[in-house]
Each structure stands twice: as C-alpha cells, then as structure tokens.
Amino acid sequence: MKKLLLIISFMAIPFAGKSQDSNLGNWLIYIGSKQLNTKWNLHHEIQYRNYNAGGDLEQLLLRTGLGYKIGEKSNVLLGYGYINSENYTGISNEKITIEEHRIFQQFITKNNIGSLSLQHRYRFEQRFVEGDFKTRFRYFLGINLPFKDSKYYASAYNEIFLNGESNVFDRNRIYGGLGYKIKKGVKIELGYMSQVFESSSRDQINIITFVNF
Q1: How far is the C-alpha of 197 from the C-alpha of 55, rounded, in Å?
Q2: pLDDT tens digits, 159-183
Q3: Residue range 8-43, pLDDT digits in tens
Q4: pLDDT tens digits, residue range 97-130?
Q5: How far does the chain reach from its first CA to its final CA, in angstroms?
Q6: Whether the Cβ atoms of residue 171 and residue 165 lie closer than 8 Å to each other
Q7: How far apart are CA 110 and CA 120, in angstroms?
Q8: Residue 136 and residue 125: Cα distance in Å, rounded?
C-alpha cells in the first residue's frame, strides 16, 4: 500500500501548478456500491476532474442509481447524474459553467476466462444540457487480472461513446492501471487514461477508490 501511495505522489508532482497549458489532467474518483438485499443494490459515485494535478476544476460529476441483480453475474440499473463542467473559452483563461442533468439505464454482465475477469457495460443516457436534450450510447469493456499470491492487480478498459444525433462518434477512452486491495470490499487504483475526441485528444491520471458494502 505504501508503495502505491508513493507512486501516486511521484506522478502528481510534475503536473502540479499547471493549468490548461498542460494536456495531462487528474481525475479523483470514488465509486461505491451498497447491497440492499440479495437482489437490490445502490450505486453512488463522485468524480472530481481537474485540468491539472488539482485546483483547476474541469468537471464535478455526481452519479447514483438503483440496481437489480439478474442471476449471479448480471445487473440492470436506473440512474441519475448531475454534472457541473467548467469549460475554458477558446485560448483565454476565462471559464463558463455548464450544468447537465442526466438519466441513464445500464446493463452489466461479467464473465471469466481463467484468472482474467471481463466486464461488459451497456449504458444509454438521456442528457439535459442547458436546455438542450441529447442522447448517447456507451459500451465499456473492462479487464481485470490479479497478480498471483498478491493483493495487487492489473486493470484495463476501453469505452466508446456514440451520440444519438449528428456527429455520431463522441469519444473513446482507453485506460490501463494498477490496483491494490486494501481489504475485503475496498480497493484503490492508479491508472493512465487517453481520451480521444473527433478532432483532439486528452490524457488523464486517474486515482480511483472502490468501496463495496
């Protein structure tokens, strides 16, 4: 655990104090899941996204949802998200605030290939952005590989976003990281994500905490 925290601190130092001049941002993410009974579960999530290592807010995302377990490895969920974005205007240092309310439905299914764990997530979003209504479909493929006789594991995913309107391609996210299981139901993960848009790209260091209780 101490080694992982040392790595996190070391990677954050070069990017502290930079603003939009840097293409490398930092996302601090908390993902929680509460099992209400054998079938129903509650999802809750906070993401604090910065243009740099911290202090230059890009986006605050709050998400929650009620899920229902289907069989042993599948779950359907109805959720709501609130997103506050602080966008730079052109090349200036001025920002504008954009608020979004989002309703989404998702289906998650999991399977294993040997020690490799795979997760498929299909999510459909209805987005209310400053008076405009938009829809978006997302497909997420996640891979988790535990290290032998260790609390450490490797994690990777690819997620594609497709708009329901014109300009169908929205973005694609590619991620790779290293995780550490602190105790049962609690783990922390450090990773690097590349986010590709139609005409640009941006990279992020991700620090993620997962809590299941």
Answers
A1: 24
A2: 999 999 889 999 999 999 999 999 9
A3: 444 444 333 333 444 689 999 999 999 999 999 999
A4: 999 999 999 999 999 999 999 999 999 999 999 9
A5: 21
A6: no
A7: 6
A8: 5
* pLDDT at residue 5, as a whole number: 44
The phi, psi pair for 38, rounded to 5°, reads -70, -20
Question: How many Cα atoms sit within 13 Å of 124 on the Cβ side?
Answer: 5
At 35, phi and psi to the nearest 5? -80, 110
Domains for the chain: give ranges and CATH numbers.
Answer: 2-212 (2.40.160.40)
**How would DSSP label each residue in 15-55?**
GTT--TT-SEEEEEEEEEEEE-SSSEEEEEEEEEEESSSSS
Phi-psi region at 103: left, alpha or beta (left = phi > 0; alpha = psi -120 to 50): beta
What is the model's pTM? Answer: 0.87
Phi-psi region of 149 (alpha: psi -120 to 50; beta: other; left: phi over 0): left
The whole-number pLDDT of residue 102 equals: 98
